[in-house]
Design a protein that fits this description.
The protein is mainly α. Helices cover 57% and strands 0% of the residues. It is built from three helices and no strands. It has helices spanning 2-9, 15-24, 41-61. The radius of gyration is 16 Å and the shape is extended.
Length: 68
């Protein structure tokens, strides 16, 4: 996240400060370790076809403003 913010906004924060900023924005920097063992591929497929495109569209339309 630190690198993304730095490249996008030319603002380079300390990694601990980035965590604080994300927390203030009600976000968190999380990384998925692995796929859930109980995942049902038949149940996931319709979600990928219907919900995921809507989420991606909203994400590209959203604008994130980080105050200086």
């Amino acid at each position: 996240m630190r690198a993304v913010i730095g490249r996008q906004f030319s603002l380079w924060h300390h990694r601990d400060h980035v965590r604080n900023i994300l927390h203030q924005l009600s976000c968190s920097c999380q990384k998925l370790d692995q796929r859930a063992l109980e995942q049902n591929p038949e149940a996931v497929a319709p979600w990928i076809r219907t919900s995921l495109p809507k989420i991606k569209k909203r994400a590209t339309e959203a604008t994130l403003v980080i105050p200086r």
